[in-house]
Design brief:
EC number: 5.4.2.12
Pfam families: iPGM_N
Catalytic activity: (2R)-2-phosphoglycerate = (2R)-3-phosphoglycerate
Number of helices: 10
CATH topology of the largest domain: 2,3-Bisphosphoglycerate-independent phosphoglycerate mutase, substrate-binding domain
Shape: globular
Cofactor: Mn(2+)
Order of helices and strands: HHHHHEHEHEHHEHEE
Family: Belongs to the BPG-independent phosphoglycerate mutase family.
Number of domains: 2
Number of strands: 6
Distance between the termini: 52 Å
Largest sheet: 6 strands, mixed
Strand order of the largest sheet: 4-5-3-2-1-6
Structural class: alpha/beta
Helix content: 25-40%
CATH superfamily of the largest domain: BPG-independent phosphoglycerate mutase, domain B
Length: 266
């Protein structure tokens, strides 16, 4: 009696196919084993980005997205896409959970804090989702809205934070709502390996106003660059108001919305 032959699904994270050779480590390397598999066995290509894996067209894929789609055997619309579609069709602005926290902030005459990764990397967050939250706060008449900006530098170039913060400032100015209260590299606030000493530094900046201080977010980033730090590693920094005190600490009865959509670094 013949036995079924086992099948092994092997995933080589980061391995892709591209015709251009310049800057393409895989194309330039000697890969005799993979070349042999391609020649001796059935071979095809799979798209690993954009709408093929449930992301917006043109958005790069990532390991979580690829694994989820392969495991499901179908296109799985990602949280990124679902949130963006909800913003587009305006159902985002009637989301009962978001409205509940906003109403509690109104009842307590307290502050709303928006915490998350400020970039358009699309792996853990997207800045357009932050913009939508600011628009919602504006529509609901909130006055005290503070942003705790986590800086990327991994899913986007390592020194792009000033670009995103400048765009965010312009958005807040056009809406007439929102202030940046703290900035921190994701190395601290998004650690997923139980390095609580890192997380504590970010937490103490958000809640107690402890850590480095700066007059504004751009100054905080510029100072980090002078020290040779890239966005990911910017120390948790508290932004001061004109009186020299922390601008927007998280306090009792405040509301906090964490706008990263990927849970593994939440």
């Amino acid at each position: 009696m013949s036995k079924d032959k086992p099948v092994v699904l092997t995933i080589m994270d980061g391995w892709g196919l591209r015709t251009d050779r310049e800057g393409n480590a895989i194309a330039l390397a000697e890969t005799p084993n993979v070349d042999s598999y391609r020649e001796r066995f059935p071979f095809t290509r799979l798209k690993a980005s954009g709408e093929a894996v449930g992301l917006p067209e043109g958005q790069m894929g990532n390991s979580e997205v690829g694994h989820l789609n392969m495991g499901a055997g179908r296109v799985v619309y990602q949280e990124f896409t679902r949130i963006s579609l909800a913003i587009r069709d305006r159902t985002f602005f009637q989301n009962p959970v978001l409205l509940e926290i906003i109403n509690k902030v109104k009842e307590n005459n307290s502050s709303l804090h928006l915490l998350g990764l400020v970039s358009d990397g699309g792996v853990h967050s997207h800045i357009e989702h932050l913009y939508a939250l600011l628009e919602l706060a504006k529509e609901e008449g909130l006055k005290k809205v503070y942003i705790h900006a986590l800086l990327d530098g991994r899913d986007v170039p390592p020194a792009n934070a000033k670009e995103y913060l400048t765009a965010l400032k312009a958005k807040m100015k056009s809406l007439g709502v929102g202030e940046i209260a703290t900035v921190s590299g994701r190395y601290y606030a998004m650690d997923r390996d139980n390095r609580w000493d890192r997380v504590e530094k970010a937490y103490r900046a958000f809640v107690y106003g402890e850590g480095e201080e700066a007059a504004n977010s751009l100054h905080a980033v510029e100072r980090a660059y002078e020290k040779g730090l890239t966005d990911e590693f910017v120390n948790p920094t508290v932004i001061l108001n004109q009186e020299g005190t922390p601008r927007g600490l998280i306090q009792d009865k405040d509301g906090v919305i964490f706008f990263n959509f990927r849970p593994d670094r939440a």
